[in-house]
Design goal:
Elements lengths: L8 E5 L4 E3 L4 E4 L8 E10 L2 E8 L6 E6 L3 H12 L4 E7 L2 H8 L6 E5 L7 H11 L4 E6 L4 H10 L3 E4 L4 H12 L4 E2 L1 H21 L5 H11 L4 H8 L3 H15 L4 H10 L8
Parallel strand pairs: 6-7, 6-8, 8-9, 9-10, 10-11
Antiparallel strand pairs: 1-5, 2-3, 3-4, 4-5
């Protein structure tokens, strides 16, 4: 399929990217080129494929980007590179968090490329304020430094992604398009840190749970069903002292101090239906 570009006329397969919204106008599918309407010039058949030559009635919709960084040379360089992308345009620059908020009062970017460390409100605090005022705003944080605390703050702020400043521009462009499209984007380094953090927390959560032997579960089941220790000892061919010692150990592991609490635990674990 021929790509859509901002020119006077362009030929594309008639049914491939457009849907008829009146007898004369076609609206572009937002997945390919958001927000423009094309006026039909001619429709003709090319082999078995129907094509249309269209006249663009307005400029192709571009991703509107606000660049926020406290270094002027960084802002200018990024703006120049972003401006070279056919599907993006820079609609503003900011060097502080306050400037970002001021610009957002009069300008409506699709994506804010937000430096994490800026004066007068750092990027993460600014992201929270901006999203509070406009939840549909997409924010891509970027920084020359990376750490778990920084990433935790970025994630909790509601930002849609993070990329390192040492990334190549092609990756930055991909990240902007990704967050604009409603998804999240985290560069490889940040993904590795987040995954490692997740695995550590998962392991800690798993380790925090008391490890009970199948025999312990059986003792809990019988106790919650009202069996006395002596009867359990006979059933398991153990001494009453052994069963009673195991009961106390189970309750210690579970931090339970009464049979009522032990019964509630058994119900939650599906070991008994007593009391339900």
């Amino acid at each position: 399929m021929t790509d859509i570009t901002c020119c006077n006329t362009v030929e594309i397969p008639y049914t491939a990217r457009f849907s008829l919204c009146s007898h004369k106008f076609l609206r572009a599918d937002s997945r390919y080129s958001p927000g423009f309407v094309a006026e039909v010039d001619t429709v003709y058949s090319l082999g078995a494929v129907f094509c249309t030559r269209i006249r663009l009635s307005m400029e192709c919709g571009k991703i509107r980007v606000l660049v926020a960084d406290d270094h002027g040379i960084m802002r200018e360089g990024l703006s120049l590179l972003i401006g070279r992308c056919h599907d993006m345009e820079v609609v503003g620059h900011a060097g502080t968090g306050k400037e970002v908020i001021d610009i957002l009062e009069t300008t409506t970017p699709d994506v804010v490329l937000m430096d994490v460390k800026m004066p007068c409100g750092d990027g993460i605090e600014t992201a929270q304020r901006a999203l509070s005022a406009n939840p549909s705003l997409r924010i891509l944080a970027f920084s020359s430094e990376i750490s778990k605390p920084i990433l935790d703050r970025i994630v909790h702020s509601g930002a849609n992604g993070f990329i390192m400043k040492d990334s190549v521009f092609d990756e930055l462009a991909e990240a902007i398009r990704t967050v604009y499209g409603g998804e999240t984007y985290f560069c490889h380094k940040s993904r590795a840190i987040l995954m490692n953090s997740y695995m550590v927390s998962l392991h800690a959560s798993s380790s925090a749970k008391p490890l009970l032997h199948p025999v312990d579960h059986e003792i809990i089941r019988l106790l919650s069903n009202g069996w006395p220790v002596k009867q359990i000892a006979i059933d398991m061919r153990k001494s009453p002292k052994t069963i009673d010692a195991r009961r106390r150990e189970i309750m210690r592991k579970l931090e339970i101090t009464s049979m009522a609490e032990l019964t509630k635990f058994a119900i939650r674990q599906g070991l008994t239906t007593v009391g339900q």
